[in-house]
Design brief:
The chain folds into 2 domains: about 80 residues, ACT domain (Alpha-Beta Plaits); about 100 residues, Pectate Lyase C-like (3 Solenoid). It contains 4 helices and 15 strands. Strand 3, helix 4 and strand 4 form a beta-alpha-beta unit. The longest helix has 14 residues. Cell division inhibitor that blocks the formation of polar Z ring septums. Rapidly oscillates between the poles of the cell to destabilize FtsZ filaments that have formed before they mature into polar Z rings. Prevents FtsZ polymerization. Pfam families: MinC_C, MinC_N.
Length: about 220
Amino acid sequence: MHKHPELKGSTFTLSVLHLVDDNFTEAAAILADKVSQAPAFFEGAPVVADVSRLKLCPDLTALKHCLSETGMILVGLTGVTHNDTRQQAKSVGLAVLKSSKQSRVADPIQTPTKVVTNPVRSGQQIYAKNADLVVLNHVSAGAEVIADGSIHIYGVLRGRAIAGASGQQQARIYCQNLQSELLSVAGSYWLSDKIPSEFIERPVMVSLNQESLQIDPLTL
């Protein structure tokens, strides 16, 4: 039986680079530093550039080149308000995306919580699609746990935790012992060097507060 290609909807986590000027070299240097801290997470990762703060259309070819040198891939623009920017994006093969503030995405169907009882080893990735994720064990360095909902970790979190992967801003990360390489909620993320020292090796809750992460202690 002959099979045909299928076009299906899906959801992916995309990092957004918020440009404030056309100094792409400086932006690329900052990104390169981030990539060096978590290369497995960022290497080859798709990036969307937010150009809403720019008055003129940037040199998109130069922007693509600068990002490619960091190992990240520019796949589209958001915050586009001018037709010339939209046309130039199309000419260089970039998508033009609307942010969640510009369009409301229908809420996905929620499925039962995914429960993992074994340790999540380095190199493993666990994904709870349209659900919360509960890990009743440790998450090793180099491992990645992802959920469209919230993440609950009852062991040590040394790897990467990505909650609200489909954009759910009410998602949370709860863990009993925070030593994470990366924390992310609804696309906003912190690497380990940004986590305040007073929360390291402590039980915490990570949430999103006005597009920035917030960490609060958990009461035992």
